[in-house]
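Hi all, posting the design record for the shared folder.

TITLE: backbone redesign
STEP: 1 of 1
STRUCTURE INPUT:
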């Protein structure tokens, strides 16, 4: 029988109603009492790292989860992490860089309704997560939710209330589950021993362009951050607004060693800065990187991981464009 470690972090799945609204209250052991069938699948130990709404998750929590995986990796056959849905995609992306090449399944799951509700998706998701954690076919970090298996670097929450909350962006689902039976379509690269990293550079920011974005907003962010992810319009680019102040701000701060990652706020098909002049003007700056088909969540987490290792522009670019767990397919 496989031995699985369940790591609890809180979220809706573990929430109970309080006078202040839904609040995470249940431990992993308490969650498992609602799904006794899991005890017939595997042997489970529980570790409650924290019990918070995932809105409150920070890179410090990602490091704590990665450290728990590193400390317990040799003792278990797989891992299930119960997590709130709102930031689960960010956590999955971050763990994909902090635990690279894991042969053992590392499964994140949660729910849109608490486990003690009659109309809950918790029991289905939790059972499916343990099925996947026991699998010999799945490797590394994946989200298991509503019968779908989504690689950790490609997940995004695309529905705020529906049970089918997550989508795989610019990449197929790696597997599906029917009646708790896994059909795995795509394997992830793995090694006998994963490469662990528990450090991140939290000084990475994100800004979404809107018509009329003021250059001073970029200045404010770049003054305080080591890198800035910019969600551009369409396939990518910065507007000139007849004064070039946005371009001048980018040139000035990248000249000081800051990094820009240009991506798109359009969900599907990715960026291509070479198409229009507003994007092509960014291409010659080696401190400006392009996300192409990467998700915003993955680009942000990857930069946090990279900048904790190096801030040399050539090394940063080399690491950014090196695929990790299917995070990038198109690279210009």
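Okay, here is what came back for every position:
SEQUENCE:
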């Amino acid at each position: 029988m496989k031995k699985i470690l369940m790591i609890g972090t809180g979220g809706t799945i573990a929430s109970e109603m309080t006078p202040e609204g839904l609040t995470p209250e249940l431990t992993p052991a308490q969650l498992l009492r609602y799904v006794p069938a899991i005890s017939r699948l595997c042997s489970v130990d529980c570790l409650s790292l924290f019990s918070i709404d995932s809105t409150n998750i920070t890179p410090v929590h990602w490091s704590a989860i990665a450290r728990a995986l590193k400390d317990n990796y040799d003792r278990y056959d797989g891992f299930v992490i119960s997590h709130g849905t709102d930031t689960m995609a960010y956590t999955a992306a971050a763990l994909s860089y902090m635990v690279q090449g894991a042969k053992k399944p590392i499964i994140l799951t949660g729910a849109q309704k608490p486990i003690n509700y009659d109309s809950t998706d918790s029991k289905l998701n939790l059972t499916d997560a343990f099925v996947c954690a026991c699998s010999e076919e799945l490797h590394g970090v994946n989200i298991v939710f509503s019968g779908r298996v989504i690689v950790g670097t490609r997940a995004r929450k695309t529905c705020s209330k529906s049970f089918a909350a997550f989508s795989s962006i610019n990449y197929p689902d790696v597997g599906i589950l029917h009646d708790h039976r896994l059909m795995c379509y795509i394997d992830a690269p793995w090694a006998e021993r994963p490469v662990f990293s528990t450090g991140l550079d939290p000084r990475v920011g994100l800004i979404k362009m809107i018509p009329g974005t003021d250059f001073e907003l970029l200045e404010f962010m770049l003054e305080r951050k080591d890198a800035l992810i910019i969600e551009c319009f369409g396939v990518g680019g910065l507007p000139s607004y007849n004064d070039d102040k946005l371009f001048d701000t980018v040139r000035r701060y990248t000249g000081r060693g800051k990094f820009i990652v240009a991506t798109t706020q359009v969900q599907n098909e990715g960026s291509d800065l070479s198409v229009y002049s507003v994007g092509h003007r960014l291409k010659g700056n080696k401190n400006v990187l392009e996300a192409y088909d990467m998700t915003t969540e993955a680009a942000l987490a990857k930069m946090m991981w990279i900048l904790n290792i190096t801030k040399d522009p050539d090394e940063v670019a080399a690491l950014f464009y090196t695929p990790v767990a299917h995070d990038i397919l198109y690279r210009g």
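COMMENT: The chain has a mean pLDDT of 95.
Let me know if anyone wants the other runs.
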